[in-house]
Amino acid sequence: MFLIVPEEETSMAIQLDPRTALIVVDLQKGILAMTPADAVADLVQANTRLADAFHAAGLPVVWVHATGLPPGRVARPVPEPDELPADFTVLHDDLPVAGSDIHLGKPRTMSSFARTDLAEQLRNRGITQVVVTGIATGAGVESTARSAYDEGFHVIVVSDATLDGNLARHSATLQEAIPSIGYVASTDEIVAALPR
């Protein structure tokens, strides 16, 4: 049996728990190099605003670095980790990384939670909610959001701080997948909801 909830019943004002963390997925040189420059500029600007706001609120920021994809057979193969450029995992130069931030290398997984201690690190900091951003919306971002939900965290994905080269997948993730496990919000909404 499927439960169908009318759209008007799923919307609400964005609420942030007092202990919310920002998880920024894969905003690294090796991935952004494959993305149009104007799209990268907008993505970096939105994530910079969010990271600055989380820093100002004294809340954790997690920078996730992809080290490669799982080794399983896929229809669209990607390079093996040893075939990637040396700076593949280095974050974009304009991101406001602070010394207190968490850096997480994903061990060839889509999700930031799979085979990492991220859930434990967040729980140890009393985190109950995560705001997820980054690239690609229908890959690492969605996988991370789903895993966060499975781990018991409240989830928000930021629509204008995510990007996917596949626009249909981007839209489907934000319009169909995420509302089943959390909420979609804008950068403006998240910044406004953070404690000052």
TrEMBL record:
Domain of life: Bacteria
GO molecular function: hydrolase activity
Keyword DNA repair attached: no
Keywords: Hydrolase
Domain Isochorismatase-like: 20-189
Stored InterPro entries: Isochorismatase-like_dom (IPR000868), Isochorismatase-like_hydrls (IPR050272), Isochorismatase-like_sf (IPR036380)
PANTHER family reported for this sequence: ISOCHORISMATASE FAMILY PROTEIN YECD, PEROXYUREIDOACRYLATE/UREIDOACRYLATE AMIDOHYDROLASE-RELATED
The name this protein goes by in its record: Cysteine hydrolase
Source species of the chain: Cutibacterium porci
